[in-house]
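Dear support,

Our group has been running a series of protein-ligand predictions, and this particular one with glycyl-adenosine-5'-phosphate is the one our PI (initials K.S.) wants archived with full inputs and outputs. We had some confusion internally about which version of the output was final, so please treat the block below as the authoritative record. The input we submitted was:
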Amino acid sequence: MANQEDKFKKVISHAKEYGYVFQSSEIYDGLSAVYDYAQNGAELKNNIKQYWWKAMVQLHDNIVGIDSAIFMHPTVWKASGHVDAFNDPLIDNKDSKKRYRADVLIEDYCAKLENKIDKEINKAAKRFGDAFNKEEFVTTNARVLGYQEKIDTILSRMGKSLENEDLADVKSLIEELDIVCPVSGSKNWTDVKQFNLMFGTKLGASADSAMDLYLRPETAQGIFVNFLNVQKTGRMKIPFGIAQIGKAFRNEIVARQFIFRQREFEQMEMQFFVRPGTQKEWYEAWKQNRIKWHLSLGMGEDNYRFHDHDKLAHYADAAADIEFKFPFGFKELEGIHSRTDFDLSSHEKHSGKKLQYFDHEINESYVPYVVETSIGLDRMFLAVFSNSLVEEELENGSTRTVLKLPAVLAPTKAAILPLVKKDGLPDVAKEIIEDLKWDFKVIYDEKDAVGRRYRRQDANGTPFCITVDHQTLEDKTVTIRHRDTMEQKRVAIADLKSIINAEVSMKEWLKKI
Ligand code: GAP
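Confirmed final output from the archive:
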């Protein structure tokens, strides 16, 4: 655990030191759970957005993208159920006066049981060596099965109680599990209460006529209210999807874990409209499609798992998370939800406008069903960034810090380094930049010895360092050094574009999906 915490602290300080993420309003001591993306962070974030947009919109001829406003008519949130049901169950500890999400306290308890399972697996793997069969072990070992059964029982009871609004039982569960406040160590809990997460604001200058608005807590509703506009103007035929990337706002009570849980964040969502009765098939298909997108980035199959929901949101008939192994354990990265016709039907009712589709194939009008994929851009950023940060022991006994970002997402693709600041080498380096900058984000760096510059670029996540030396003046070749292998090769300047392109082009990466 201490190890995990150390790793996470390193992630946060590295993100600041290398210009990826800053605390918002830092000179005023910051604003809790609000962050700014710095010069490198903004590039990484943009690259993640593009990687998603290309995969979802550009590569699917039946998905289009929109960009709807953050402010929406207040009735939208009544219709969507957010006014009545977008709540977190909160509990206070009377001694520490600290407030917690009751479900998170219970989930953290289960995460501890999961850690115990992991320990058993690691112990057995060491004991049995190459003969170890993990699959067999976890399905037969009595201790592992016991922990797993306990986790399943707890989560299933919590899911049912939350669904039935039985908050007294959620409290009983916390008491029965002997969960203590992490700050005071006491079990002196208040009752569990619901708390709405939407931020309210006002539209209009005069106090009497101002209209109460909400900052949108999800981007999805901007898609639902535009469903018919897009379908008609785009002549879309079911099944089809509408995607968008945009900001969402939630008044998170337990906002910690850096950019994992923020009050202002970005979502990349896609609503896929299907014929009623086919939603199950599409739900499974999108689960597979989305996990393939994640795996295409090469961040390790073992770092992902599906988690099927016991507690379904007010709009869903099936839901699963893609969880990622963050430095603080497996947590939700993306949700895939079968949202039924809940949203469109409810908007029909509240707006009085028909939101139906005439299906020529079956000669019938209906309110389409919806399968949604919803990923937090900031969580994706954290997944990529934390997974990429490694400390490597080198053969000479020293260590290097390297940010092994998937090259396709790296903010800077290459650094061009003149070996020395004289003899015309900087001029050649700048000529190379002039040529490459039309295709890639590249930078110039002449400060310090070349070894230090390599390390700086390693820590910054730059996949290539290109060094201009005296030989360059004679034969128009340079050395190109690869961040991950540290291998150096002499290549012609004329070949640089195609060498870099082969490793960073989105096309090559997306073909793996
Ligand atoms: N439209 C469905 C929806 O909003 P959700 O599970 O509440 O579903 C979707 O959110 C995704 O948004 C999550 O999987 C997560 O990646 C991201 N997300 C949710 N709350 C967040 C927060 N407070 N900070 C950062 N990301 C968040």
